[in-house]
Structures are given as structure tokens and as C-alpha cells.
User: What shape does this take?
Amino acid sequence: MTPMALEGIKVLDVSQVAAVPMCARHLADFGADVLHIEHAVTGDSWRNLQAGAGGGPAGIPSDIPYNWEAFNRNKRSVAVDLSKEGGRKIIYKLAEQADVFLTNLRLLERKKFALTYEDLKAVNPRLIYGSVTGHGLEGPDKDMPAYDTTVFWARSGVSHLLTVPGMAGPNPRPAFGDNVAGMALAFGVVTALYARDRLGVGQEVETSLFAAGIYQLTFDAAAALATGRDEMEYRLNEGFEGTEEERKERDALIARSLQAIKDLADFYRERLPNPMANVYETQDGKFIRFNALQADRWWPRFCKLVGRPDLEDDPRFSTLEARKENRKALYHLFREVFRSRTLDEWRPLIADFPASPVQTLVDVINDPQARANRFFLPFDHPTYGTLEILASPVNMSLTPATIRMPAPEFGQHTEEVLLEEGFTWEEIEQLKEEGAIPD
Assistant: This one.
């Protein structure tokens, strides 16, 4: 049998749902021995998402757990309760001989269970510690609950750029952003393993759903940093190539269709089974996307958020089934509440919820959370002066990515590289005469 690229690499996958499990799956596909650590009683909640295979609400019903298989093939499952001292003892024992530790535990949970990088580094200095966070390791929202629907889609600008003006954006597909973050983390882990071969020690590797979303919008985010402008707003204004009459015709079409589109959006949103995993418009025409999937856990807090604590014990809404049965009335009730305040008024109130505003690219490049995590870096360009450019979405504690050169001019380094490879000046001149390289 042909040897596998990561054969002999042991990975502890202390995660659930999607982003980090997908990273671990990539490593497993290439031969790593991945131990997927699941809760000793409930298991990985991803097992129960798919319709027809665990009772979950998502996807096409099937007796085949295609969702679970897709994200967790090639792994071995180990059931451990991290809240128990004995459970943590198991993880520490496994970490002593592991090459890679992966997690998407929130930062406060890593501290609670003594599973931070510093904790495990003391046990195994050669350990590569990889993680996906929601919003990054720093900043005011580092502990805020996060899903790809709220952070990758809404906060990073993806939803904004994939929809018509005045709308909240398309319906996010499950794990769409998680998969991007998972692939980025896998790249970072393999890079760290390569660095360990040279340096002899491990390091921490991190990416976030927020960084991954901005990375996916590299073209548009770079434009926003260079110009201070948002692609969608530019396209609607200066970027429109048409006469003034055509512009008026376009604006009239948008105005006539927007209400119909909003009515259609309401038609679908009022039928979603969980009103706390929905989108709501604010007084100033902005949108907030919520994704409180653990409905019973979030229900009392959501009632307080909207200023209606009386709804908590209202028999029409007090249970999951009751809320599902009366979801249309509940959606419209919440819709009117969120329209009563502007987005800026709602922002501090949703800080502890799995929620994000639907942001433009100008919002994104000025987002304090993005700034706190240094998603954008200053660079002194030899031609254009001081610029802000996108940082790598993969953060490595020991061998970080650096920006050393601007993008090259056409053929700028041809002679330099040929000289490095042993070509003489006479040979270079001959190549120029032959037209093999530009003169």
C-alpha cells in the first residue's frame, strides 16, 4: 500500500458541529489518526442536525446520515465528559503523545476546562494547537457566540454582497463558511507540522469565521481598503454604466420589486420553526441575523431582549412545539419589536447572543473586532505609499505570515532569478535576442 502523506500523525479533535471537524476530516483523509472526542452523553450535536437521521431539521430526509459521514469519515470516536476531572485526565494523557490538538471550544470554555494552548504546551511542547474561533482571539467580541450564518455570512459582508439592496441576503447553506475556515485551519496545521520538523517545537494556529468571511471577499475587501468604498454602493451609483434615464428606470424597477421581494422573504421567514434563528430588520433599514439553535436555552433570554418577559410562560410559546405551531404570529411580533430601534441601539443588547448585523464592506473594514484582531495591516508600498492590506486568515504564534514585498511588476525579477540559477549575463543577453525573455 502506498504510504499516506500524514501517516503516523495523531490528532485530537475536541470539537463539534462543522468547522474544526472538517479540518480534522481533511487531515484524516490524508492518513492522520484522528480521535474525535465527543460528549460522553449527548455526543457531537452535528449527529442530530440532518433530517431523517437523528431527528434534525436540516436537509433532505434520509436514513443515511450523509451529513455526519461527510464531516467525520476516517475518524475514531472517543466519548469523554470534559466537565469531569477524569475526562480531562484522559485528554491530557492523549495530548502527551499527540501531534495535533484541534478545538472550537469558546475561549472561556478552554480556560474553564484547562485546555488552553499554554495548558497543553506544558504537557507536550511539540504539540500543534489548532483552533477556529468565531471572532478572533482578541477584541470586545472574542467571547460572543458565533455561527457561520451570523459571522461568516452576515458580519463579514458576504450576505450584503450577494443580495439586492434593502434585503438581508440569501439563505445561508449549512456549514458553507465553516468549510472555508476548516480548510484554512488544515493548511495552517500542516504548515506548523512542517515548521516543527525544522524548529523542533509546536505552536498555536488559529483562524476565525470572521477572518474566513473577509478572506473569501478578498477582491471586494481589498477594494474597500484602497478606496474606502463599498462595492455594492459603488455599483448602484458611480459604477452604473447607463444614461440618467436608464438609471431612473432601474431605480423604479428596484423600488417596485423590493416590496414584493420583502413580502416573499416574510412568507418564508414566518414559516421557519425557530424564530430565534431568523433575520429581522431594524428601524433604519439594517438587518440582524440570529442563530440561537438551542431554542429552549435561549428562549427566556430572547424574551428579555425584546422587552417581553411575559412571553416566556405564555402557553402559545412556552415550549418548542408551541413556538413551532405559532411561529407565524411570533415572527411578526418579533419583527415589529426589532423595527422599533436602530441597529446601533440594538448592537449592545445582542452582544451575548449568537447574532450579527448584516454589514457592508465599509462596515467591515471599520469593525472594531476586525481591527482588534489585525485583519488589516499597514504596508509601505514603493509606488502607492502607505496602504492597508488584508492579513493572512491563518495566525501562527511562532512562525506567522509576513508581508515582505508588494505584488511584482511584470517580469521584474527575471534577470535576478536567472542569475541566482547560474545563468551568466552573456546567456541572459542571448535569451533576450532569441525572444525567450523580454528585453
In short: The chain has four domains: 10-215, 231-269, 271-359, 409-439.
